[in-house]
Design brief:
Largest sheet of chain A: 5 strands, antiparallel
Structural class of chain B: mainly alpha
Helix content of chain B: 40-55%
CATH topology of the largest domain in chain B: Nitrile Hydratase, Chain A
Shape of chain B: globular
Number of helices of chain A: 7
Strand order of the largest sheet of chain A: 4-3-2-1-5
Largest sheet of chain B: 2 strands, parallel
CATH architecture of the largest domain in chain A: Roll
CATH class of the largest domain in chain B: Alpha Beta
Number of domains of chain A: 2
Number of strands of chain B: 4
Distance between the termini of chain A: 38 Å
CATH topology of the largest domain in chain A: SH3 type barrels
Oligomer: heterodimer
Largest interface: A-B, 71 and 67 residues
Radius of gyration of chain B: 20 Å
Chain lengths: ~220, ~210
């Protein structure tokens, strides 16, 4: 989904402010929600992908006005409701409202795929290949940031085979596939003329990519 | 905001307490496990782990080679493993290349070697601008890189967790691995800072 979480390249959030001698947790409730969340996810069998998506489905205004650990509270509430562990009535009795799950955008995953895919799929791309991030806008979870969509880059590393978050977050199959570090020139991403060299590497699954090899004779010949 | 809460919790504190009680009643979590896990990240897992790896890489060429080839194994051999540390990659800063780590979509971070991320790493300001204006973000931290140094930003959009291997500062030739580890900061291992030379700090101090 094109959610509020996908903020790479946005402006207006001000300078980065560093806190001197920052504690690991800033309040006792932060110290408790962090492990409570991890333990709950483990108990419910929730993947990191599904957890991230439960945060992404928060109402955008609420996402922006919540702190990091407040977003974790919302995620846990949403998952508890959706996994049928806590009902809206139980939430109302305990919290005074129906919990964050009552106002979260419902998950819209892709259709489930069969488990027929190979556990060790072959890599379609290799280091040095020119690729383009596809212009995908799925309604569910994705790890293809908007700022990279439609942009051309170069594969710099093949990280090996990983479960595909777009399906895995929705329990629609693991679809294991190669994931690559794809390097984009800052000028390609932001269109700004810069004399200084800047590159952004984004880790992208194979299904996010298409070949951007120039037509005609292959350049080089390096294998 | 009322001026006196009379010790009555409100907002997230009250909510987390109510959630914990609800889940404890259902037998899903217990306070001992919560305490134990919180304790791990408060006391055991932190940037000291990464600093020790960096210091070893600076003093042991074979370890540095292993770190750059397979940072997960290099962390494991020093006893650092766990969640958000299963696919570690170390990226090396040189005189020509400076690396910066971010997660624009959430706040992915190499927990096993750096601990839990600081608030600024999770902030919208950092997540949004680290990819589009990395030099500006570094200036927010007081680091101005010359234009001829290439900046490489790594957006942790998948399961790879990055660790920057900073440049070893001048004036550290005689220092032991432990003394070097003391110099290495979390910020330098994310890439928003360089490791300061003890010489420079010394001279600055003497001016103060």
């Amino acid at each position: 989904m094109n959610g509020i979480h996908d903020i790479g390249g946005m402006d207006g959030f001000g300078p980065v402010i560093r806190e001197e001698n920052e504690p690991v947790f800033h309040a006792d409730w932060e110290r408790r929600i962090y492990p409570l969340s991890l333990l709950t996810l483990r108990q419910l069998g929730v993947s990191a992908d599904e957890f991230r998506h439960s945060i992404e489905r928060m109402p955008p205004a609420r996402y922006l006005t919540s702190s990091y650990y407040e977003r974790w509270i919302a995620a846990v509430e949403t998952l508890l409701l959706e996994h049928g562990v806590v009902t809206r009535e139980e939430f109302r009795a305990a919290l005074g409202d129906e919990g964050a799950g009552a106002i979260a955008k419902p998950a819209e995953g892709p259709p489930a795929t069969s488990g027929a895919r190979s556990k060790a799929p072959r890599a379609r791309f290799k280091r040095g290949d020119r690729v383009r991030a596809r212009n995908l806008n799925p309604p569910g979870h994705t790890r293809l940031p908007r700022y990279a969509r439609g942009k051309a880059g170069v594969v710099v590393r093949d990280w090996g085979v990983f479960v595909f978050p777009d399906t895995n977050a929705h329990q629609a199959g693991a679809r294991p596939q190669h994931c690559y570090a794809v390097e984009f020139d800052a000028r390609e991403l932001w269109g700004k003329p810069t004399s200084a060299k800047e590159r952004v590497s984004v880790d992208l699954w194979e299904d996010y990519l298409e070949s951007a090899a120039t037509t005609g004779p292959k350049k080089g010949g390096k294998r | 905001m009322s001026r006196n809460h009379d010790a009555v919790e409100s907002g997230p504190a009250a909510r987390v307490r109510a959630l914990e009680e609800l889940l404890a009643r259902k037998g899903l979590v217990d306070s001992d496990s919560i305490d134990k896990l919180a304790d791990t990240y408060e006391r055991k897992v932190g940037p000291r782990n990464g600093a020790r790896m960096v210091a070893r890489a600076w003093t042991d060429a074979a370890y540095k080679k292993r770190l750059l080839a397979d940072a997960t194994a290099a962390a494991t051999e020093m006893g650092f493993s766990g969640p958000e540390g299963g696919h570690l990659v170390a990226v090396e800063n040189t005189d020509r290349v400076h690396n910066l780590i971010v997660c624009t979509l959430c706040s992915c971070y190499p927990w096993t070697v750096l601990g839990l991320p600081p608030v600024w790493y999770k902030s919208f300001a950092y997540r949004s601008h680290a990819v589009s204006d990395p030099r500006g973000v570094m200036r927010d931290f007081g680091l101005t890189l010359p234009d001829n140094v290439e900046v490489r930003v790594w957006d942790s959009s998948a399961e790879i967790r990055y660790l920057v291997l900073p440049k070893r500062p001048r004036g550290t030739d005689g220092l032991s691995e432990g003394e070097l580890a003391d110099l290495v900061t979390r910020d330098a291992m994310v890439g928003v800072a360089e490791v300061a030379s003890p010489l420079r700090t010394g001279s600055r101090r003497s001016q103060a």
